[in-house]
């Protein structure tokens, strides 16, 4: 068991997504099956049975579908560029670095220092794996990352919490730091970001700020980036094993404004 964990604000959200992945795995793991998440909710000293955790666990399949698609993009990229560096921003307690077949390059997981301290306690050390405890918007951590060569930048459940200027600065920096690469992330629509700002504590007030309506706007800010793929997170909702969820997701998917609430994007440069 770790010491007591008391993350607040945006840091708390990584316990929510961890709990969702653990629950999906306990229910059979038909979509993602994140066994490490199950193990972590037993190891981390936090009340994962609390009301606020139970209230937020409903959308576990959305989180599992998002993680699975990003895993697929990561595995595909590392299959093509095994020596690539991987930068996973806002990693939280996510087990991707242990879940997908790793390449030969170094994998950097970046999050706030206290989040990274907790990761050090619960994850084993690995070769070619580095943790960076820093805000992603503080440019100095880039000095630890070797320049040149191919890179894969992964940001899952992160960019919506940043200001547009910060997202733009990170993407610009990535395309300047490396010769070639891909960037994969999820983005929320404007109405979803607005609604999140109205929600009461502890569900609101994470400072959600950035919404992406059309992935092409990112190409306009960072001309080296080319949108290769974009899909709604619920694209593969038929894989969800519970009928009631499937029905709800099918309805949701049939209304474009709802279907596009959360989309996944893949860019190349
Ligand atoms: C919704 S969680 C997602 C965590 C993980 N990617 C996952 O899918 O489980 C958002 C994460 O982004 C991190 N985060 C938010 N703003 C950040 C910033 N400015 N710098 C570093 N990490 C940040 C939070 O600490 C949290 O771990």
Give the topology, please.
Blueprint: H1 9-26, H2 35-43, H3 51-56, H4 60-80, E1 85-89, H5 96-99, E2 107-111, H6 113-122, E3 129-133, E4 150-155, H7 164-177, E5 180-188, H8 190-198, H9 216-221, E6 226-232, H10 243-254, H11 256-259, E7 262-268
The chain binds S-adenosylmethionine.
The CATH topology annotation of the domain at 81-268 reads as Rossmann fold
Q: Shape from CA axes?
A: globular
Q: Architecture of the domain at 81-268, CATH level 2?
A: 3-Layer(aba) Sandwich
Named once each, the bound ligands are: S-adenosylmethionine
Unreliable stretches, pLDDT < 50, 5 or more residues? none
Largest sheet, spatial ordering of strands = 3-2-1-4-5-7-6
How many runs of DSSP E, i.e. beta strands?
7
Largest sheet: 7 strands, mixed
Protein name: Methyltransferase
Pfam family, one: LCM
InterPro entries: Ppm1/Ppm2/Tcmp, SAM-dependent_MTases_sf, TcmP-like
GO biological process, one term: methylation
What does this 3D model show about the protein?
Pfam families: LCM. This protein has a domain at 81-268: Rossmann fold (3-Layer(aba) Sandwich). Helices cover 42% and strands 16% of the residues. It has helices spanning 9-26, 35-43, 51-56, 60-80, 96-99, 113-122, 164-177, 190-198, 216-221, 243-254, 256-259, and strands at residues 85-89, 107-111, 129-133, 150-155, 180-188, 226-232, 262-268. The longest helix has 21 residues, at 60-80. The protein is globular, with a radius of gyration of 18 Å. The mean pLDDT is 94. The structure holds S-adenosylmethionine.
């Amino acid at each position: 068991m770790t010491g007591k964990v008391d993350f607040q604000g945006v840091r708390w959200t990584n316990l929510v997504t961890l709990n969702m992945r653990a629950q999906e795995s306990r229910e059979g793991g038909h979509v993602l099956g994140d066994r490490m998440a199950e193990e972590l909710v037993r190891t981390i000293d936090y009340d994962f049975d609390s009301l606020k955790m139970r209230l937020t666990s409903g959308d576990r399949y959305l989180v599992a579908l998002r993680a699975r698609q990003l895993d697929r993009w990561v595995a595909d990229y590392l299959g093509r560029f095994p020596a690539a560096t991987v930068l996973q921003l806002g990693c939280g307690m996510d087990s991707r670095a242990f879940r997908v077949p790793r390449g030969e390059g170094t994998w950097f997981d970046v999050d706030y220092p206290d989040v990274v301290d907790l990761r050090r306690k619960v994850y084993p050390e690995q070769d070619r794996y580095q943790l960076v405890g820093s805000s992603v918007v503080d440019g100095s951590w880039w000095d630890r990352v070797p320049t040149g060569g191919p890179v894969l930048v992964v940001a899952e459940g992160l960019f919506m919490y940043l200001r547009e200027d910060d997202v733009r600065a990170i993407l610009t920096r990535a395309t300047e730091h490396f010769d070639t690469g891909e960037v994969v992330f999820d983005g929320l629509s404007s109405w979803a970001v607005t609604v999140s700002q109205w929600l009461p504590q502890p569900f609101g007030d994470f400072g959600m700020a950035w919404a992406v309506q059309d992935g092409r706007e990112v190409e306009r800010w960072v001309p080296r980036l080319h949108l290769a793929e974009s899909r709604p997170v619920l694209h593969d909702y038929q894989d969800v094993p519970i009928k009631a969820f499937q029905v709800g997701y099918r309805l949701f998917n049939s209304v474009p404004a709802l279907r596009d609430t959360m989309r996944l994007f893949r860019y190349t440069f």
